[in-house]
Specification:
alpha/beta, six-stranded parallel beta sheet, Rossmann fold, Dihydrodipicolinate Reductase, domain 2, 3 domains, 17 strands, eleven-stranded mixed beta sheet, about 25% strand, Alpha-Beta Plaits
Length: about 450
């Protein structure tokens, strides 16, 4: 059969890893596809790259990415530049030129994917993006194909390794956020500017993509609630653990009667859940569906070869289907384009959750009664209540309350009222809790 010619845009960590995988496993890949996959051309701005060192000894190297997407002999363009600027232009140009596309660009897909997929449908080409979510974990294929017989009910994922490493270290060592962030930067797990990871943007892009695949809705990143981990206190991680919970930054999407939940925030989960034991830089995605029940998908969420493995898997899939029409391929967002429904995404005030509250109050009688009355007024029931100690010099106590499930607007109203009490000495700390019962 005719070889498949691949053009790679960007030879950084993932691009270099992709070249390495295609070269080292060429024979195995050809056994699977029945045809040769050739690294025909690659583009990178660096002029000092050695193509032999990059596993590209027979590849044409250029600094003009548009030459790659316009080359008549290239069948598949692999975009590994990132961002929403030149990468978007290149992908749209590749589609216009009738090229299939593989990308690891979660930001581009979450923010501009509706436009890109529509263009691909019009040109009868496919955009594949397994590497955009959870690195080497094949969660995109799972949602698009493996669970196609199911009505998916919810997804919860630890999908940012940097944040998970920081929270794991804070729990294990009792260190502050700032101390662990510095360590993560030293080890190369966090960027010099870590905002994208620690404030939830990266996880938000990923859960936005998974929500579309799970529920057949357009990509809605602008409606995804984002809350990061930079303001977390190590004492709350300690108190939560004493109560049987672990704190994780989760991306959560859930189907409800009122609409779709789409959110990223620190979340307390019972320590008995498998998701609670995912530590360090590892990722895990927990999916609950009506027929299969719960499945947990665990592995490396980033890294040169783990992510490259997902990129090459997409190249292999495209090589198998390259002669078919769009109507015979798996739809980009798992559902037929005409069946994608614009189901509303719920604002956070309408989301239901349990809550952890840490309240610094005067150590005197009547305070607990006042707090309980406010919660009762908002129809919030208490699951557990404990006092964590008294600061004698200030005559204050820290009270920790766990609530049963309630609507977020009610907990916000209760917190506002509690903070107005004369015996409350600091803003209330609030962290959401999820038990993930299978009937959710």
């Amino acid at each position: 059969m005719k070889p498949i010619n691949v053009g790679i845009l960007g030879l950084g960590t993932v691009g270099g890893g992709t070249a390495k995988v295609l070269k080292k496993n060429a024979a195995e890949i050809e056994r699977r596809t029945g045809r040769q996959i050739r690294q025909f051309m690659a583009a990178d701005k660096r002029s000092d790259l050695d193509t032999h060192d990059m596993f590209l000894p027979e590849t044409t190297l250029t600094d003009d990415a548009f030459a790659v997407v316009s080359h008549p002999e290239i069948d598949i363009v692999v975009e590994l530049i990132g961002g929403t600027g030149i990468a978007k232009e290149l992908i749209l140009k590749a589609i216009e030129n009738g090229k299939h596309v593989v990308t690891a660009n979660k930001k581009l897909l979450a923010e501009c994917g509706n436009e890109i997929f529509a263009a691909a449908e019009e040109k009868n080409v496919t955009v594949m993006f397994e590497a955009a979510v959870a690195g080497g974990i094949p969660i995109i294929k799972t949602l698009r194909e493996g669970l196609a017989a199911n009505r998916i009910q919810w997804i919860a994922g630890i999908i940012n390794g940097t944040s998970n490493f920081i929270l794991s270290e804070m729990r294990e060592k009792g260190s502050s956020f700032a101390e662990v962030l510095a360590e993560a930067q030293r080890l190369g797990y966090a960027e010099a500017d870590p905002t994208f990871d620690i404030e939830g943007h990266d996880a938000g892009h990923k859960i936005t993509i998974m929500a579309s695949l799970a529920f057949g809705i357009p990509l809605n990143f602008s409606k995804c609630y984002l809350e990061g981990i930079s303001k977390l206190d190590a004492k709350d991680i300690k108190y939560a653990e004493e109560l049987g919970y672990r704190l994780k930054l989760l991306g959560i999407t859930r189907r409800t009667e009122s609409g779709i939940e789409l959110r990223v925030h620190p979340t307390l989960i019972p320590e008995k859940r498998l998701l609670a034991s995912v530590n360090g830089v590892m990722n895990a995605v927990w999916v609950h569906a009506d027929m299969v029940g719960s499945t947990l998908h665990y592995g490396a969420g980033a890294g040169e070869l783990a992510t490259a493995s997902a990129v090459v898997a997409d190249i292999v899939d495209l090589s198998r289907m390259i002669t078919s029409d769009n109507a015979d391929r798996v739809p980009h967002l798992a559902f037929q384009p005409s069946k994608v429904c614009d189901t509303p995404v719920l604002p956070m005030d309408e989301v239901k959750s349990g809550y952890y509250l840490r309240i610094q109050a005067a150590d005197q009688s009547g305070v607990l009664a006042d707090i309980a009355n406010i919660l009762a007024k908002e129809k919030i029931s208490i699951e557990a209540l404990t006092q964590k100690g008294v600061i004698q010099s200030e005559q204050t106590a820290e009270i920790v309350i766990l609530t049963h499930t309630t609507q977020e607007k009610h907990i916000k109203a209760a917190i506002a009222a509690i903070e107005q009490l004369p015996n409350i000495h600091a803003p209330v700390v609030m962290i959401r809790m999820e038990s993930f019962h299978i009937n959710n």
